[in-house]
Write a structure and sequence with these properties.
The chain is flat. It has one domain: Sandwich (Jelly Rolls), CATH 2.60.120.10. The strands form two sheets. It has a four-stranded antiparallel beta sheet. A four-stranded antiparallel beta sheet has the order 2-7-4-5, with no helix packed on it. It is 19% helix and 35% strand. The protein is of the alpha+beta class.
Length: 124
């Protein structure tokens, strides 16, 4: 596990995961619940450091985002629409086939679960 101890919120998430009898079961539980509703492909946990921004890019599929740790300075931009995804337990659908980026201008690291949707590719 990557240690992110400089951020107390991320360290708390790590401790909660580590305190479970089988830490892999956290991801398995999330994958199982999402799979009841959506065709889930690959799923991963992502982290974004302080004062950091991704390139303006497109991805081949739609995705579900579940913010775990965030801050008001974390912004998500899709096709020039800017929004903040709060870590309130919600699952956010995002069409990543359009140009997008995210930026963390805040003072806390962002942690989220991202699950690709395994729908057939759109060819037209």
């Amino acid at each position: 596990m990557i240690s992110l101890q400089q951020d107390p919120d991320v360290a708390l998430v790590e401790r909660r995961i580590a305190s479970r009898p089988d830490s892999r079961s956290v991801a398995e539980d999330v994958h199982r619940e999402l799979s009841l509703r959506f065709p889930i492909g690959r799923m991963r946990v992502q982290s974004k450091g302080l004062y950091n921004c991704n390139s303006w890019h497109r991805d081949p599929e739609s995705r579900l985002h579940i913010p775990i740790v965030t801050n008001p300075g974390l912004l998500f931009v899709v096709n020039h629409h800017v929004t903040h995804l709060p870590a309130d337990g919600s699952v956010y659908f995002t069409d990543m086939r359009g140009y997008h980026t995210d930026l963390n201008g805040g003072e806390k690291r962002r942690v989220l679960i991202v699950a690709a949707l395994a729908y057939p590719p759109v060819t037209s």
